[in-house]
Amino acid sequence: MKLASNYKSDNFETIRGKNILVVSRTPQNSIRKSYEEQISKALRAKGINATASHFIFPDLEPLTNKTVDRITNTIAMFRKEGFDILLLTSLKDIEEQEVLRREGEYITMLDYYSNKYITLKGYYDDVHAPPKLGPRETQLEPVTEKSVTFILEAVTYNLALVPDQRLLSVITTKTTNPSSGRAVRTSFANLIAEELK
């Protein structure tokens, strides 16, 4: 996983010493829990007080048909429980790409040993030199590989500030063809913790 972009506002330092509520936006509750717990754990390891939202707000639903009143009520609910900082994570996009790769048409021993190993007298005696092989008679077929890139985002807000000053940071990450969901979750959490410490 790599950091694609990172923005920090002038008010970023107001995050210090505050309780952070970690919310992972996803329709699947099990994924929400696993991400919130992993991110909270990584932040706490850096000395940041963070709590997974599903412990405090197990029935929290994404805001649909947002209105000023609904947003105000949700913020008040978070702050009433002692959370001035909101860390909201989400999967922003999935990029799929097919890559056409053509392997070498001909392969000889020269490709493996290079010229000096085969012809340089004294490095190998001529008797023991690897044999020179002619080109393979068959060509290798082109190979199509599918590349999948996941773009994840973490946005932090200070809910105690006035609306136009609330945004503290935006962290965007990319990972291509990850080995597992757990690897993505762990890398994402560690990267967030590094950026917010």
Précis, in short:
With 197 residues, the protein is an alpha/beta fold. The protein contains five helices and six strands. Helix content is 31%, strand content 30%.
Walk me through the structure:
There is one protein chain. This protein has 197 residues and is α/β, with parallel strands linked by helices. It has helices at residues 29-45, 53-56, 68-80, 109-119, 181-196; strands at residues 2-8, 20-25, 50-52, 85-101, 143-158, 167-176. Strands 1-6-5-4-2-3 form a 6-stranded mixed beta sheet. α1 crosses α5. The two termini are 18 Å apart.
How are the strands of the largest sheet arranged?
Answer: 1-6-5-4-2-3
What is the overall number of helices? Answer: 5
- The proportion of strand residues reads 25-35%
Radius of gyration computed on alpha carbons:
26 Å
Distance between the termini: 18 Å
How is the biggest beta sheet arranged?
6 strands, mixed
Q: What labels describe this entry?
A:
5 helices, six-stranded mixed beta sheet, elongated, 197 residues, alpha/beta, 30% strand, 6 strands
